[in-house]
Amino acid sequence: MPLGPDTVGRKLLWSIALPGLVVALLGVGHFWREAQVSVQDATQVESLALAEFVASTFLLPQGPGAPPHDAVAEVLRSDTRLFRSVADVRVLSLEGDVRWSRNPSEVGTRHPEAARLTTPRPETARSDDGVTEVVRPLGGPECGGCHTRGDIPGASILQMRMVEPPLHQQLTRVFGGALGSMVFFVVLLSLVTTLSLHFNLSRPLRKLSAAMGRAEAGDLLVRAETRGTDEIARLGAAFNQMLARLTTMKVEEIDTHRDLELVKEKLALKDELEERLRELSLLFDVARSLNATLELDELLETVTRQVVERLQIPEFSIMLVNADGALEIRHAWPEERTTEGLTFSVGEGACGRAAQTHKAVYLPDVTDPSSVFARRGLIEGAMDTGALLAVPMVHMDALLGVMNFQRPQVASFSAEEIELLTAVADLAATAVKNARLHAETVKLTMTDPLTGVPNRRHLFQRMELEMARAQRYGTSLALLMVDVDHFKRLNDLAGHRVGDETLRKVCDILRTRVRKVDTLARYGGEEFVLLLPQTHKAEALEVAEKLRRAIAETLVLPQSALPGGHVTVSVGVAHFPSDATTQEALVDSADAALYCSKRTGRNRTTAFEPGMEIHPGRERGPHAPPTEPAAPKPPGGVAKA
After folding, report:
1. Preceding peptide of 616 cis, ω within 30°
2. Element (H, E) at 330
3. Which are the contacts of 51, defined by CB distance < 8 A and separation ≥ 6?
């Protein structure tokens, strides 16, 4: 079986055989080159000597009647070993004409290489393509044998060409045979090395590698061959021991993995249970904190705090539906950002869409231009990146508002978290509804249903606060008690409907002509009370007189149900602390002054003076006869004469 391209045997073969082959070839080539150079040099020296000998043959004597230089031709034609390698000999003139040649047919012709040969140069020998050429000048003593000194021709040139000597050819054959033998030896050595590496190294390693591959694929029951006692056999034995240990460890791992899977399932159930418990704990805390108060502003603040602290929401806002049907921000976090007057119409932006559909709207990336919901900044300076979740607050199919949650990270709300926040919004919606119902209930208990102003209960609560403030800061407080004149006659003649309308109109006039800090309340029947903080007695008299004139000049009855056809009022004025120092005494003093206005002709204003409270005709006061407790007066129609 041949060695593979990436086996250890081939690598060893190339690392051993290739360097040896290269070194052998380089050595043979070097010695062959040196031999060629030596032979070539020896050939050139021999050629120069032979040329010198040939030139000296021109000194040989000529026989009578013999052609010129016949002796030279005879010598060159002789079958001696010295002249066997001479290819041709020529004598050229300085112009390149052949004067004498071994081949008589060339005599008198011009040599093809005349330009090169006639160039003046010393005696030279040149070898090329197995032929050595010698060129030397001729025309000195060599010509003395045939020519006298007076008729010696001009200088000539001797050209002699010799073929490759037999010695060179023998060396070439010897080195060629040596090279072939070396190549054969290298091929034979490579073949023997290949077979040896294959049977002793590559095949055992291949089997061991195959066993390792199966073990890597997961077959831990495979075993490697362990024939012999060499390193590969010991490696296979060590590998088998390792596989045996791995098999034992794998069995233990399977058992451990099974146990871990059971523990993991239990932990997953435990984590899920803990997560559910955390969610239920959060919902319980939110519900408990929401049920701890019925004040709407305090409730919204509590919801914001719970969401920011427990759910790690950096930006949050609560919107409630206002009287115009728009979504108005009532509370937001961070608190330092401006939210006053910021409203969204239903259907505008993500919050408006949530309010319109009564479903949560989630924007994973508010900067995504492909979002179907346009986004406006809920808060000035709010984050322009991240994820936004708008959850509607719906109670019994009625929209109460929207809760907006925002984080700076994109897609930072999971499905479970959205479900939890939806449950928080439902709890908040219920709490907001309860707070509003409580506010309406409180308003009904503290407000007169006929006129819409605070009732007697609210009046006394307000009076208690204002008197405590006046005592603390040393300021004054005035109390005006206003009573509609002849109200019983008006009810009898015009009916209770006209009487109720008259009370509402009187209340409207009083409400529009007092300060925001003043308190207007219906005391009972046709009586109203005005509480004027930080007002002196003289100023209170001016205010009372102004109100009395406004009512007398404004309210005109369509029929003569009252004297003069006008509605008039009587006013009593009391002052704290000059007239009274307690709440009961202050009210009694104002009532005494009102009784004085009634007694002295009605449609007038009277300030309290000491002694008014003890008038024997008053229905209340220290001199009033004891009577049974009176029944509560209806909102309208009960008249005070």
Report:
1. no
2. strand 327-333
3. 123, 125, 134, 136, 158, 160
**Is 71:57 a contact under the CB 8 Å cutoff?**
yes
For residue 59, CA distances in Å to 53, 146, 149, 309, 599 come to 10, 8, 14, 132, 192
Number of helical H runs and strand E runs in the chain = 14, 16
Structural contact between residues 433 and 425, judged by C-beta atoms closer than 8 angstroms: no
Tally of CA atoms within 13 A in the half-sphere of 255 that contains its CB? 5
For the segment 185-198, the average pLDDT, to the nearest whole number, is 78
The answer, yes or no, to whether residue 217 has pLDDT greater than 60, is yes
Strands 361-363 and 343-344: unpaired
Per the model's pLDDT, the better-predicted residue between 281 and 486 turns out to be 486
Cα torsion angle, 142, 145, 149, 152, sign:
negative
Sheet (strand 527-533) strand order? 519-524, 527-533, 477-484, 569-576, 605-607
Burial 286-307, CB ≥16 within 10 A → b, else e: bbebbeebbebeebbbbbbebb
Q: Which residue has the higher pLDDT, 159 or 613?
A: 613
For residues 226 and 232, what is the distance between their CA atoms, to the nearest angstrom? 8
Contact 483, 595 (CB under 8 A): no
Helix (H) or strand (E) holding 19: helix 8-57
* pTM exceeding 0.70: no
Residue 222 to residue 16: CA distance in whole angstroms = 35
Lowest mean pLDDT among 70-84, 104-118, 619-633: 619-633
Residue 112: Cβ within 10 Å count = 9
What count of residues does the chain have? 641
DSSP states of 336-359 as a string? TS--TT-EE-TTSHHHHHHHHHTS
Q: Cβ distance 456 to 523 under 8 Å?
A: yes
Whether residue 100 contacts residue 91, with contact meaning beta carbons closer than 8 Å, is answered with yes
| Distances, alpha carbon 256 to alpha carbons 196, 215, 216, 262, 624, in Å | 48, 21, 21, 10, 98
Nearest residue to 608 (alpha-carbon basis) of 620, 585, 590 = 590
**Tokens 């020998």, located at residue:** 125
Secondary structure in 3-state letters for 108-169: CCECCCHHHHCCCCCCEEEEECCEEEEEEEECCHHHCCCCCCCCCCCCEEEEEEEECCHHHH
Peptide bond into 68 cis (omega under 30): no
Nearest Cα to Cα of residue 127 among 163, 76, 176: 163
Over the stretch 475-533, which tens digit does the pLDDT of each residue have?
999 999 999 998 888 888 888 888 899 999 999 999 999 999 999 999 988 999 999 99
Instruction: Give the residues across from 531 on adjacent strands.
Output: 479, 519
Task: Tell which residue, 594, 475, 477, 487, has the closest CA to residue 531.
Answer: 477
